[in-house]
Design brief:
Chain lengths: 835, 515
């Protein structure tokens, strides 16, 4: 097949923002977080992404403020570099090449020109041992500097950035790993090691999880796997060290942080509760409960006014120090599996998939931002390991986005499967979905597929279950009673007690195809009559899909025995079939195209084809590793006008897919990228100057002045128009309110100047009109002379006869005037030349 | 920060009647007023005149009650034997009544002694009525005759002897002074014209006729007898229109609501059923304590009066709209006006620092306990609740949190017996069974060691066991019935050949259908 260089597979949004601890800037205005291979700068008040600092070539593994310049940050990455950024302008200032993959970065105010990084002990990447090294950053003006001056501080440390912390005034560094706490004093150049017993008895796990040092006193707080927090004191000697224990968390303490003044200690864990302990009065605690998901990192702004917590559901919460949530930055939530599949909300055109436990998330693909979460389960979420939670397993939208159907499921050990089918109506007033009907136990077994009828007459939902039945649900209006419309079961169907696996409505909703293992049954939804059965053994039917528009007479099916079949519904016969291990079939709702993802030798291939045509429109081998299980066609805002044949299928809609590693990818064409580039450029130019009334007044005037000067230099003809242009300035002066005008002294000279007739034109006025009747010959002669003169004067040929020829539609009077001016100029310039 | 999400109490689909405008209309009556009469109340008739007094015939008396009085306004006692069918004339001045002693008496409503006495029947007179011209009286008697009498002369005008059994009901036309209809125990309804010697129409009810009713338009006739209520079209020569069988005992009395849109029937099965007269479907149902003999509706449906065999007269008055509001007002003491406006009209000054107050959310008691993870206390509070659906919802929530076993454990005898009581009451309810079976199993697991220590708990456990066994038998029976029905349905369904494409696979079986 032909390789299409113009169509590229690109990452599109939804990157992880909770990988490392975010950093709040000194003025608390910005929040920086590592996001994949870039650093994102968010505004802490508006939650918007301000800059995307790109430059690293591998995962960014840490960010730290530059203690000597509050407008700069360091970032480190697994690509072995430390980069210094100006985050307000989004500029890369310097790159320090360390040469080893870096896992975390620390800076200390007392150690100027030194950053501490965690790198593997051995050179190879597979090494499991890590060390903390101090890197002396060379002072050099170059953009890229090699920093080879490394000195090891601590050996055998944990690569997690929370497992080391710098103490009071950078005098010591504490690092924890396993059951050992190591404190290294820089003055004495001596480490102290403290050990805890494993303590597996009594269910306590003493392993360290995180460390934080008090900024003003000699105190180290450590978090442990069993939820305890220990405060260590007197650790500058081997024997007489002491520690006190605090216990509130029931799960492991994920992160600990002292506030900058050391008055409070913040801790967080799986309970998703931010706990604020008063230092020295530890029995006084403040809680901020129900933050949504397990807390993974806590960061505090340098002035202590803002806290921010990262959560396991790809979210950053910004909290004011009075323990009140002020902003939430939410990325695309990626749970282990997208059980609901990808969907597009027909109203907002947002991508819809599982989000937080028990929620559906609506994610805008164009803005790369989560729009909102819809709480499906509507139950208090209990953070506890080993608890069976309700999960949203299926969801479906009807054609107009008026109805949303969701299935939630909870399987508990030793008891029945709990299933709820919920139907949500779109409420125009609140602009969100409102629960209309809940059906408890709609089927006796798992619901495997669900789809709405696309026909405009009826609102019908079909659910397919492993219990061997499919059910049709209809919206019934109870107008005689006070209750509104609700859903009820209309029909229960089955076929020889076989287990149905998939279902699909035809484009007009007149046919329903249900795949019962090897057999495809085609039903008429109006009468619930079994119209025909189609079968192509061996292999159970895996996926079914009707063609659209001109291909709506075709029904496509994939089977487990690597067969892709296409039936003609009109003749009820097999049109064609091809051996192909199709893992996913997806129809474009706006065109006839169908995308088939095939898995072959650990890679996924993509074929885009029309059911009626033998040749695929587009094919790409080795799209990504692993099976592609989820894909969706998202309609475009604007249609692309790509004329290449193989790229035309991307004109109306865009194909998004999720790889095995849950990366959201899409196909991008050259025209699209060009357009994106152009729009971003235009945006930058537009934003360069702020538009104020003052700018409107002065800026325009200055612009005019500049133009006039240029014109005056290049074309003496422009002198004529100078007066009316000046009068615009006068008019503007007169009509602008006085309080926004610049000072009178400034304006006065400008005003007077604009009224004055320049000396040259004054002289011109005095010239008698006798010379009007000069011959053409003289004129051309004078012109030639003038040209020479001008070339001599400026050394540039900006004005030529061509310009004059370009204005042939002059009236007689104008022509006459022009001639006079030329004549005058000629004499004046020649006089100049003479002297 | 999200707030605590309270426990979701599932809304179960309501079984039984749905809330329709009809149920709202007919439920809008106050609690009935009960008056004890001396014997079975055989007849009730409302006066057509304004205060709408009503005459109640019971035993040897006729009482006239005012619309809201519980004591009789007037009593007629001059009967030698059981009185029947006290009826007002259309001007409300005269009242006629039959008697078991075959004498028909006519009273002035303001007087005491009978104005006229009509003698001629040989047996008890159960039917009396005025004709529409007000000058004649219709009577029907157990001597199989019905007669017309002249009031001024107190003489008998005509006598019809066509029925072959007791005449127990009859009515006169309100539009034509000569037409009247009688119903008899000989299963027939006869329409008479006073100008003609013989009956002009005969209809066969095929049950002893207990009551007849003419529609205001007089095009339709309703008769009741046995368990049936039948509607006849008089304009089509007495063609039966519809036969209703909604009672399971003899229907004794019929009534029509004031707008003629609803038909009421009262029966010995102690029910009053209300039908829609356009489709003859039952729209509402009243229950009474005893078999009903008589029923009457006040004009504008202001009250429903029902007389029963045990001599109790039950009067239901319609709630007036003001009264409804008054009741609502009494239930809740409203805060004074200034409570609502307090602080609302305060305009912040320029330098004021605005401190937003968090909205306080009100949680139920059990939710407060759940929020604090006090699981045992949450279950206790839920058990105190009278509504089983709330208790079951809390149990389900505890089960979801994986702490139901902990909440159930560690209870003393009293607590445990309370829990078992709840289980006995609700475990077989199909709405709660899935949750409560888990809970029951857990209780048995936890407390099996202490079985035999407390007689109270043991007795309850035995009861629970019996209950579960009975339910299992019952479910088995139901499944058997379901199987039988499936067979019947399967044989009655037409066999249809499904078109099968190609020759890849034979396929001639019908799809399994189940509803």
């Amino acid at each position: 097949m032909v390789a299409h260089a113009e169509i590229r597979v690109v990452h599109r949004g939804g990157s992880k923002i909770n990988f490392r601890e975010p950093v709040i800037t000194n003025d608390s205005r910005f929040l920086l977080c590592a996001s994949g291979e870039s650093v994102k700068v968010y505004s802490s008040s508006s939650e918007e992404c301000v800059h995307d600092l790109q430059g690293h070539t591998d995962l960014v593994s840490g960010i730290a403020r530059n203690p000597s310049n509050h407008l700069q940050v360091y970032s480190c990455s697994a690509d072995g570099t430390v980069r210094l950024w100006d985050f307000t302008d989004g500029i890369l200032i310097k790159t320090f090449i360390i040469g080893y993959p870096i896992y975390s970065i620390y800076v200390s105010e007392k150690h100027g020109g030194v950053v501490f990084v965690v790198v593997p002990m051995a050179n190879d990447k597979s090494s499991e041992l890590f060390q903390l090294v101090a890197v002396h950053l060379p002072r050099s003006g170059d953009q890229e500097v090699e920093a080879r001056e490394l000195s090891a501080v601590l050996c055998d440390v944990s690569p997690s950035p929370g497992a080391a912390s710098f103490g009071r005034e950078g005098e010591y560094v504490a690092a924890a790993k396993g059951l050992q706490l190591e404190v290294f004093f820089f003055k004495k150049q001596k480490p102290y090691r403290f050990f805890l017993k494993p303590g597996i008895k009594k269910g306590s796990k003493n392993a360290f999880t995180c460390v934080s040092c008090h900024p003003k006193e000699d105190c180290i707080a450590t978090g442990h796997a069993d939820g305890k927090i220990r405060l260590w004191r007197n650790f500058n000697q081997k024997k007489e060290y002491t520690y006190s224990t605090l216990h509130w968390h029931h799960g492991a303490v994920n992160t600990l942080q002292f506030t900058p003044e050391g008055t409070n200690l913040l801790s967080g864990g799986i309970e998703s509760v931010l706990v604020q302990w008063r230092y020295t009065q530890e029995n006084q605690k403040d809680f901020l409960p129900r933050l949504g998901a397990a807390i993974t990192h806590i960061a505090v702004s340098p002035d202590g006014s803002l806290f921010c917590t990262s959560h396991s559901d790809n979210k950053i919460t910004i909290i004011q120090s009075c323990v009140k949530v002020s902003a939430i930055i939410q990325g695309l939530v990626k749970s282990e599996g997208v059980r609901t599949d990808l969907m597009i909300d027909p109203r907002s055109k947002a991508l819809v998939l599982n989000g937080k436990p028990g929620h559906l998330q609506f994610y805008s693909l164009h803005r790369d931002k989560q729009l909102y979460n819809l709480d499906i389960v509507q139950q208090e979420y209990i953070n506890e390991e080993g608890l069976d939670q309700f999960e949203v397993v299926k969801a479906a939208f009807d054609a107009h986005g008026d109805w949303l159907a969701t299935v939630e499921e909870r399987r508990q050990k030793g008891s029945e499967l709990e299933i709820n089918l919920k139907l949500w109506a779109y409420d125009e007033q609140t602009q969100s979905f409102v629960l209309n009907t809940t059906v408890t136990a709609p089927h006796e077994d798992q619901i495997t597929a669900m789809c709405f009828s696309p026909s405009p007459e009826t609102t019908m939902l079909v659910t397919i279950s492993f219990d061997g039945h499919f059910k049709a649900w209809l919206l019934a209006d109870h107008s005689d009673t006070k209750e509104g419309a609700s859903w009820s079961c209309d029909f229960v169907g089955g076929y020889h007690l076989l287990k149905p696996g998939c279902c699909c409505f035809s484009a007009d909703g007149s046919l329903l195809a249900v795949g019962f293992q090897e057999v495809v049954t085609v039903w008429s939804p109006s009468s619930w009559e079994l119209l025909t059965t189609l079968s192509q053994p061996p292999g159970a039917i895996r996926d079914l899909c009707f063609g659209r528009l001109s291909c709506s007479k075709y029904l496509l099916g994939t089977s487990t025995k690597n067969q892709l079949c296409c039936w003609n519904i009109l003749t009820c016969s097999l049109e064609w079939s091809t051996p192909m291990d199709v893992s996913l079939l997806q129809a474009d709702p706006l065109s006839e195209n169908i995308a088939a993802f095939c898995s072959q030798s650990g890679c996924s291939d993509l074929f885009v084809f029309k059911p009626g045509e033998p040749r695929p429109l587009y094919s790409q081998r080795a799209l990504c590793t692993g099976k592609v299980q989820h894909a969706i066609f998202a309609p475009r805002d604007q249609m692309l006008e790509s004329c290449e044949e193989h790229a035309q299928w991307l004109n109306r809609s865009q194909l998004y897919f999720l790889t095995q590693h849950m990366d959201l990818m899409t196909f991008s064409t050259k025209t699209e990228e060009d357009r994106l580039l152009a729009s971003s450029k235009r945006l930058m130019v537009d934003n360069s100057v702020a538009v104020t009334p003052f700018y409107l007044l002065l800026g325009k005037h200055r612009l005019q002045q500049q133009q006039q000067q240029q014109e005056a230099l290049t074309n003496p003809m422009a002198e004529r128009i100078q007066l009316p242009q000046g009068s615009i300035a006068i008019k503007e002066l007169l009509y602008t309110p006085a309080h926004v005008l610049p000072s009178a002294s400034f304006l006065c000279s400008m005003f007077v100047r604009s009224l004055l007739i320049s000396s040259s034109s004054a002289r011109e006025e005095k010239e008698p009109v006798e010379e009007e009747m000069e011959s053409e010959e003289e004129d051309s002669e004078g012109e030639a002379e003038l040209r020479d003169a001008r070339q001599d004067l400026e050394g540039s040929a900006a004005w030529g006869p061509g310009e004059e020829l370009g204005t042939p539609a002059l009236t007689k009077a104008q022509e006459r005037e022009l001639r006079r001016v030329k004549h005058f100029d000629h004499s004046w310039l020649s006089s100049l030349l003479e002297c | 920060m999200a707030s605590f999400k309270p426990t979701k109490i599932p809304i179960y689909p309501k079984l039984g009647e749905k809330v329709t405008p009809d149920t709202l209309y007919w439920k809008n009556y106050k609690a009935p007023v009960q008056i004890k009469e001396f014997g079975a109340v055989t007849s009730i008739d409302f006066s057509p005149l304004a205060p709408h007094n009503y005459a109640v015939t019971a035993s040897t008396r006729i009482h006239i009650y005012g619309p809201f009085s519980q004591e009789p306004v007037k009593t007629f006692t001059r009967f030698k034997d059981t009185a029947y069918s006290g009826k007002f004339r259309s001007d409300g001045q005269l009242l006629v009544a039959g008697c078991e002693d075959s004498v028909v008496r006519l009273f002035d409503v303001s007087g005491k002694v009978a104005l006229r006495v009509f003698k001629g029947h040989t047996k008890g007179v159960h039917v009396t009525d005025f004709t529409s011209d007000c000058y004649h009286i219709l009577t029907g008697s157990d001597d199989y005759t019905c007669r017309l009498w002249d009031i001024p002369n107190s003489t008998e005008l005509t006598s019809y002897k066509e029925h072959t059994d007791y005449i127990r009901c009859g009515t006169t036309s309100k539009l034509n002074r000569d037409i009247f209809i009688t119903g008899s125990y000989d299963h027939t309804l006869r329409v008479f014209d006073a100008r003609v010697e013989k009956s002009v129409m005969t209809m066969d009810h095929s049950q002893p006729v207990e009551s007849v009713l003419l529609y205001p338009s007089e095009g339709l006739l309703v008769s009741s007898g046995g368990r049936y209520v039948k509607v006849w079209d008089l304009l089509k020569g007495g063609q039966p229109l519809v036969s209703l069988k909604n009672h399971h005992k003899t229907v004794t009395c019929l009534g029509l609501s004031s707008n003629g849109q609803r038909l009421l029937s009262a029966s010995l099965d102690r029910h009053v059923k209300i039908y829609n007269t356009t489709n003859y479907k039952v729209v509402h149902n009243f229950d009474y304590a005893a078999s009903i003999l008589s029923l009457a509706l006040a004009p504008d449906d202001e009250s429903i009066v029902v007389g029963m065999t045990n001599g109790v007269l039950s009067i239901k008055h319609r709630k007036s709209p003001e009264e409804k509001q008054e009741v609502a007002g009494k239930q809740r003491v409203r805060p004074v006006y200034r409570v609502f406006v307090k602080g609302r009209n305060y305009v912040p000054k320029k330098d004021d620092f605005f401190v937003s107050k968090p909205v306080k959310s009100h949680l139920a008691k059990y939710d407060k306990q759940l929020k604090r993870f006090n699981i045992s206390k949450a279950l206790d509070t839920a058990l105190e609740n009278r509504k089983p659906d709330i208790t079951v919802a809390v149990m389900k929530e505890l089960d979801r949190r994986g702490t139901l076993k902990n909440a159930l454990a560690g209870r003393d005898e009293q607590n445990l017996s309370q829990l078992l009581n709840f289980l006995i009451g609700n475990v077989v309810d199909p709405r709660f069974t899935p949750v409560l079976v888990t809970a029951t199993e857990m209780i048995l697991d936890i407390y099996q060691a202490v079985v035999g220590q407390s007689s109270v708990v043991d007795r309850q456990l035995v009861r629970l066991q019996e209950l579960v066994e009975r339910e299992i038998d019952y479910q088995q029976d139901l499944l058997e019935v379901l199987g039988m029905l499936d067979t019947l349905f399967a044989t009655s369904l037409p066999r249809k050949e499904v078109p099968c494409p190609g020759s890849s696979r034979p396929n001639g079986l019908i799809p399994t259908l189940s509803h």
